[in-house]
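Tokenised fold entry reproduced for everyone:
>
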Amino acid sequence: MKKILLSLVFFIPLLTQAQTGIGTTNPDPNAILDISSTTKGVLLPRLNAAQLATLAGTLTPAQTGMLVTDASTGKPYFWNGTGWKDFSTLTITAGSPLSISSTNTISINPGTAPGDLITWDGLNWVNTQPVAQHFSAIVVSNLQPSLTLNYCIALQGIFPSQNTPILSEIDLYSFTFPPKGWAECNGQLMAINVNQALFSLLGTTYGGDGQTTFALPDLRGRVPLHFGSGAGLSSYTLGQTGGIEQNSISH
């Protein structure tokens, strides 16, 4: 009897200080129980309905997570603190725009129109078209470095002639007024009856009704461009205008 008591005295401290290994002599130091096998599994306690009910009557939330097996179906059950729950009936849910199929495949809900984006509306993630307030308007300048001078057109002269000034000739000046016999290229309307020679050269290329008036070229804030089509470039006709000073990007 003394030998049995002596053995228990030495054995109990070993149980309280060591991990238990089944199928291994080197259990994980962080596990209270380490089961190792390549040919066998683990069977949880199998309880029938009556036994499950009896056990539930003794459990509290402190035992949440306890595992057993339903003896009749073989399904694993866990104690959630108030009752037994069948693992196989757990439902996985996802909030919009995510969805989960019957095969537990997670996917993003399809949009309703090309260009839809996933965005947070303050409560949920939703598929929606981008709206203007998502973007601040960006104004991009198209202007090149420049120097402002005074374009003037000859209202008097001989055409055709190798002498100067040539009628309708356009020159650049560094002062703010046109020389005598010249006019600034401001797109102003001219009377045909007093400028018939000039009208015969310009016609209504730059404006006017062609009956009583015609217009001079308007070069205010514009860069002159030679008419025609360069190699690999666009074609331009005499008097054609184009271009803008700024581009506004809002989307």
Residues 46-89 form one domain. The helical segments are 2-17, 49-56, 196-202.
